[in-house]
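Reviewer comment 2.1 asked that we show a complete input and output for one of the modelled complexes. We chose the magnesium ion case, as it is the one discussed in the main text.
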Amino acid sequence: MAHHFSNQEVAGKLREVAAAMEVRGDDGFRIRAYENAAVAVDNLSSEAFDLWEAKKLDEIPGVGANLAQHLDDLFRTGSVKHFTKVKKPLPAGMFALLDISGVGPKIAYTLSKQFGLTKSETAAVKLKKALESGKVADLEGFGEQSQERLLTAVTGFLKKKGPERLLLPVAEKVAEGILSYLSSCPEVIKASALGSLRRRVPTVGDVDIGVATNQAGAVVDFMKQYPAANRLVAAGEGLVRLELTNKLTVDVKLVNPTEWGSLLQHFTGSKNHNIVLRELALKQGKSLSEHGIKHEARSTKQEVRKYDNEEDFYKALGLTWIPPEMRENAGEIEVSEQRKLPQLVELKDIKGDLHTHTDYYWISSHDAGTDDISTLLETAKKLGYDYLALGDHNPSISSYNENKIISLIKERKEYIDKIISTRENKVKYSSIKVLNSLEVDIRPDGTLAIPEEALKYLDFAVVSIHSSFAMKKEEQTKRVLKSLFYAKVKILGHPTGRLINQREELDIDFNAVMAECLKRNIALEINAIPQRLDLPETLVRQAVKLGVKLAINTDAHSADQLEQMRYGVDVARRGWAKKQDIVNAWPWEEFQHWLTG
DNA sequence: GCCGTTTTCGGCCCGACTGTTTTCAGTCG
Ligand SMILES: Nc1nc2c(ncn2[C@H]2C[C@H](O)[C@@H](COP(=O)(O)OP(=O)(O)OP(=O)(O)O)O2)c(=O)[nH]1
Ligand SMILES: [Mg+2]
Ligand SMILES: [Mg+2]
Ligand SMILES: [Zn+2]
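Response of the prediction step:
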């Protein structure tokens, strides 16, 4: 009988063993191997359990024969003898303390042992009591200050709900506030948002800001006065770390302008990109840091050569500059070395939006848009688009019968034709081709929520799932495949159905779906709504590899939301998509050929 | 423990800050 564990549970177990090994004083590299494996399992795009069933555990980078064997024990029997043995001598409560900031294995162990924290459920609360009683300050290696610091950290930990990461646009707003504040500091020469923000990761854990200055001390003092700061976490000559009133952490790293290039590289990350880059440098006899490159890392001469721009920094390693969105240690260093970096799609390549909602007046199956056709066209024109598809939700099938739906869709076509052919609009929007589309629900049985007869009134259809999210993989996959069979279907909308921080992805076999898309010349949508960003980047990457086409759409429910295209392009770039992979980056003629072909 | 354009041994990123401690360990990014 197999025992199921989620990726997060498996990663948690690996981290606990790593922490236990740290306390035991085991080899640091072996510990790192456990931590690496934990991160790898955490970030897996499929379930480790499924990989185990398919006997493919050791295909996870960072999981080798040994760990695969341990995880095999875990999934078969529900526990791992070796893990249990390593953790047994240690107080069980210590593992519950590891997520408290500033508490690592050593401190967790010392305090758990000292105060008898044997249960994970009560460990943090008991520790707080001990800290409040003042007993911690008397322990060897601790003092009044560390006691105070720990109390703040434990209190924050106990208040915290979950490890929520911010959506990219929310973090962008925070960063803009800080950058605007920094721009009024005369000693700041350059300032940029780096870290996950610059890599355009869909969710952001903290806000990282790089600063170039010749007077770091003055900038540090200036940052300490930031109005939205709640607490100063750390400060030195190269760093200020603040906790904001909304509990978000801000890291500001400072270097001289001569070191700007190396800071950009380092502080953009990702961590794994940095580590692999540094390992590559070591093989070349160089050593990298945010301050520059030691070109003779092994000699006694330790001169650090400085780089004021990133291009030169990468060039010094024999690489061409790598777009931040690609810096995830997913093969980008190799392709840069081989001069085979893809020319990633850019926002300015986008020539139209293929999924937008208007305020059209029927009772629709889901939320309608709030702006009319002309308002959308106005914005589309401002964005320089060559084409725009109006894709309202289908009429509600519980409100209308089939014949009524057919006549409604016919009526809508006539209405759109009329609007765009008025003399005024013909002149105003002459540069934009308007497409008559619908976002049609895929019903649980895979049929469409409009009669087939109505499809002839559309230029094309986007089909999407908006119900029955919990179906089993086989059934859900069949459902999607069936929907792709209908005439006029050209785009599968928000294919995984995920809502970041809220709803998991649908259980779908995307190998099968992509094969079908390829066969039928159907595009997968990259929905640009920041909470969706769906397709997720790993599936984008897979689609690009297979040659499956993609459409980046805003799914705008108001004219201003047409401007969220950027977030979809970010995902496309993180999935290594080129202009040729994105149907709405094609000129009208080419796009139209695809649409009707 | 993992891993392989100097493959199955011998490497494994590098620095900032804190706090308690006379020279550094622990934690974090
Ligand atoms: N070389 C190296 N660089 C690191 C390490 N940890 C972090 N960095 C660099 C790369 C990161 O992108 C950058 C900022 O660190 P963060 O912890 O804020 O990570 P990041 O912003 O990538 O993700 P986040 O959304 O904050 O979780 O600092 C490390 O262990 N080694
Ligand atoms: Mg960050
Ligand atoms: Mg950070
Ligand atoms: Zn939808």
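The first strand of chain A starts at residue 166 and ends at 167. We note this here for comparison with the apo prediction described in Section 3.2.
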